[in-house]
Specification:
By secondary structure, the chain is mainly beta. Helices cover about 5% and strands about 55% of the residues.
Length: about 90
């Protein structure tokens, strides 16, 4: 697999609770390895600086992105379609 070397440098590694996937989070992307291999890149919003954190709350996978403002942006990972959907802001 082409991601092997980079996977060793991931900031956060999280195994999916729902799918046979492992998420490797970096500051500029999330690499998904499993039944489908995919890279989710940093959204193009000019206020977004980097991916910051990734964790489950109940059955939802939260992805936190750091911004240049007072609040971070929270996304929910759609694990069926492997995309992130904006949820709101957090301080």
């Amino acid at each position: 697999m082409e991601y092997n070397i980079n996977l060793l440098n991931a900031e956060i590694v999280l195994k999916s609770k729902k799918k046979n996937n492992t998420y490797y989070m970096y500051s500029d992307k999330i690499v998904v390895c499993g039944t489908i291999n995919k890279t989710i890149v940093l959204p193009s919003d000019y206020k977004i600086i980097c991916f910051y954190d990734m964790y489950y709350v109940k059955d939802e996978l939260y992805v936190v992105l750091c911004t240049d403002g007072d609040y971070d942006v929270v996304y929910i990972m759609d694990e069926e379609n492997l995309r992130i959907c904006k949820k709101g802001l957090q301080k």
